[in-house]
Write a structure and sequence with these properties.
The structure is a single chain. By secondary structure, the protein is α+β, with helices and mostly antiparallel strands. The protein has two helices and 13 strands; from the N terminus they run ββαβββαββββββββ. The strands form three sheets. The chain has a seven-stranded antiparallel β-sheet with strand order 1-2-11-8-13-6-3, covered by helices on one side. Strands 7-12-9-10 form a four-stranded antiparallel β-sheet, with no helix packed on it. The chain has a two-stranded antiparallel sheet with strand order 4-5. Strand 1 and strand 2 form a beta hairpin. The longest helix is centred in the N-terminal third of the chain and has 14 residues. It is globular and about 60 Å long. The structure holds N-(carboxycarbonyl)-S-(naphthalen-2-ylmethyl)-L-cysteine and fe (iii) ion. N-(carboxycarbonyl)-S-(naphthalen-2-ylmethyl)-L-cysteine binds next to strand 6, strand 8, strand 11, strand 12 and strand 13.
Amino acid sequence: MDLFDDPPPDTTQTPLAPGAALLHGFAREEAGALLQAVETVLTQAPLRHMQTPGGYTMSVAMSSCGKLGWVSDASGYRYAACDPLTGQPWPTMPACLLHLAQRAAAQAGYADFMPDACLINQYVPGAKLSLHQDKDEKDLRAPIVSLSLGLPAVFLFGTPSRKDRPQRWRLVHGDVVVWGGPSRLAYHGVAALADGDHALLGRRRLNLTFRQVARSIYIK
Ligand code: MD3
Ligand code: FE
């Protein structure tokens, strides 16, 4: 038996918790093309700082693509078919982004992932996202897939109980994380972004989260 027969995998997978897997560098090779698709979306649906229902302005700038986009204002959080800034439907989800999310979900054990929303988050140094749950999606059996581009971030990953102290994971350019099953309702957030200068993105981090928001019409 030759122990050295198998080529090393181009990405390793770290289980973060039941149902959650970090695919190291899963999108690294195609990151340039993915970034270009994101920048095109952002010319049609610009990044903006939303208001929280509590009256704060978020430090993370956001936009969306896909059938539904995530919106927050004084009246609450929700998914909406139109961008309130432009009054237009959100830009179509670029095929390269959809396919990346579907390949990652399948790799992590979630077949037939059909995201209808992709939330785009931009962090500049100092920007952060407080601990929260994502539970406004109608079918919590579908996972969420996240893609990190640009500066590294410290991701805080707790449990479905707010009281449990979160684990800290460093996410770098090209990393993809798939969150589903028992991890789907875990509390999570992002620590204040450290300053730096990324070769492709400069002084910022982009995070894309792919979600299935509407209830599926297909029987599982
Ligand atoms: C774990 N974004 O947009 S992505 C968000 O890096 C959000 O911008 C973060 O949390 C970011 O809501 C984290 C990773 C993520 C997204 C959703 C999750 C982790 C999750 C839902 C359940 C559990
Ligand atoms: Fe979240």
